[in-house]
Specification:
The chain has helices at about 20-35, 75-85, 120-130, 150, 180-190; strands spanning about 1-10, 50, 60-70, 90-100, 105-115, 135-140, 140-145, 155-160, 165-170, 200-205. It is about 25% helix and about 35% strand. This is TIGR03936 family radical SAM-associated protein.
């Protein structure tokens, strides 16, 4: 049995599809495609699927992936890609299909591009001047205080016309997973920069030794 990784982009209106709804979308699309995916056993069989680092609602991504299994001995992965893209909802585009090369637990960092209006530069300069930036992180095991400066001591940015871009790499491991919304929330609370004015796009995953996760 082969484990297959389906990589995809999730943008525009699809960024508001929650993980639970995305699971339903993928189940339905895989069933409609007629591809030879493996189903779990038992009274309620369903397509086996695992997602790596679920994306926060409202954020976009160029590097999402879901793993499925197939009993096909020699899958035609280009045919899989074409079959899935033909019936995907708007905003989701399959970019690659192939055998799994790295296990998801190797993911250590997620890299993002955050875009603000150019006027956000003043708030970012103020953030860079701070010695400390504590934020509260909410989790299933309770809330805890995270020092943003330990992970983002300085935010580099560039401006292009009316837009400002900054590229961030943040921990995305099982033991610590930080989201750029912690930074955008802090900037709003501390400096009045509206978090809703930020567009967050996840670009890639990295391993602990900064290799590209594929």
């Amino acid at each position: 049995m082969i484990t297959v990784r389906i990589s995809f982009e999730k943008k525009n209106e699809a960024s508001y599809i929650s993980l639970l709804d995305l699971q339903r979308v993928m189940q339905r699309v895989l069933k409609r495609s007629g591809l030879p995916v493996w189903h779990t056993l038992g009274f309620n069989p369903h397509i086996y699927m695992t997602f790596a680092c679920p994306l926060s609602l409202g954020q976009e991504s160029e590097c999402e992936c879901v793993d499925v299994k197939t009993e096909a001995e020699a899958p035609d992965f280009e045919q899989w890609k074409a079959a899935l893209n033909a019936i995907m909802p708007a905003g989701i585009v399959i970019t690659h299909v192939g055998p799994v090369q790295m296990k998801a637990d190797l993911i250590a960092y997620a890299c993002y591009r955050v875009t603000y209006p150019a006027a956000a530069a003043a708030a970012l300069d103020q953030y860079n001047a701070l010695e400390s930036a504590p934020v509260e992180k909410h989790g299933k095991k309770g809330n805890k205080i995270i020092e943003l400066k330990e992970h983002l001591p300085k935010v580099e940015y560039t401006t292009e016309g009316d837009s400002l871009h900054m590229d961030l790499c943040m921990p995305a491991a099982q033991e610590l997973n930080l989201n750029p919304s912690l930074l955008t929330g802090f900037l709003e609370e501390k400096f009045g920069l509206p978090a809703v004015s930020a567009n967050i796009l996840r670009k890639k995953f990295l391993t602990a030794d900064k290799q590209l996760f594929v």
